[in-house]
Amino acid sequence: MDPTSALTKVLAMRRFVWPGAAVLALLASPLVACLWDHDTLQMERLRFPSALNLITGKFLRHSPEFYQWRIENRLERLKTTTDDPQLLDDLAVAYDKTGQHQLAMDTIRDKDTRFPGLYETYANLGTFYIHSGDLEAGLTWITKAIAINPDAHFGREIYQDLLVRYVLSKREPGSQKLSLPMGSGGGPQSTGDTFAGFLADQRSEKAQKQSPNLHAAVKGILGMMRFGHYDSPVLLEALGDLLLGNAGSDAKRLAARAYLKASYEVDRPEARSAYRKLAKDALTLQTRTKNTTQPLDLDTLEKQFQSELKNAEAWYAVVQADERNWIASGEDADLKFSQKYYRPPTVKAPKSPAAQSLRSAVDRWSVSIIVAICCVLAVSVGLIGLRWRQQSH
What we know:
- The chain has a domain at 48-56 and 155-303.
- Helices cover 67% and strands 2% of the residues.
- The protein has helices spanning 3-12, 19-28, 41-47, 51-56, 64-77, 85-97, 101-114, 119-132, 135-148, 156-170, 195-206, 214-227, 233-245, 252-264, 269-282, 298-328, 333-341, 353-392; strands spanning 185-187, 190-193.
- The protein has a two-stranded antiparallel sheet with strand order 1-2.
- The termini are far apart.
- Mean pLDDT is 78; it is low at 1-41.
């Protein structure tokens, strides 16, 4: 709750409160200004339900061993199957996931020759170029993909396009070098020199001063993390910027975690320190719990985050062990993974009308019995009380 809202409530209750209490509340309000934001991690996760899992790596993803298996599997299948473009997509993505970017691009270009003009081809090729470091070429192919299907993946490519443009704007002039962090950070209710600020400027120019859809941008970045490199410091920084700059539904604890994770993924000590400062600044005006003025410091949050990371590592280790066992046993890893991890949730069969009618009748009968018992008890108590009064007289 912000101080203005707090003051409004105090004034609205003045007829019920000792006048001196209202004066004390007015005098004390600057001292408890940190209470303006009581967001808890649970509330933040309700707004951005997949963010914490993607930051920590606790989501369904394949192991390096699986992608190596898929390369061998798809190469074998392509010897006899020539009319399935999905096999070429699978092979190209597996090459990219194992760091073989040139083979990934060669494979997807071969697919484009056989099956020209497909959205998936251009989206994949653009992403492969970006992963290889050629952002300009990647941007060209992402733009072509957007032209074919702007709404694919919930508009993820649109934000990939904008993120690449932001990164290009942060490169040193005449150089391919990119210093991390890219931005200097914002602050409470301020996008500052961040990806969120860049996005606001871009969308304002293109949409005649319309408000930027930062919530959709968060979904776009989360999609890139899920299907790309979830531990990329560039993506983590962009996510932190958006979570912090999402006015009206910001998520400072999640933003701090994103910046912290970025600090773990960089080598330069200066970059690590800078990301930790962004994480610390994200917690400005945050309190540990809703009913205390004790500030939430970075050390406290980091201890909890470290526990979350360990939990995610243990969870992913099970997935990785499964894939290794399937491969070692000569089984179809695709099929086994789908059977175990892609099973649809169990849905109970709806009750028949007759069963529902019977249940309703039983419920009504039960309620009637309870009401009757209560009435009997009430009458009995009344009679006992009446007899007691008569005897006492």
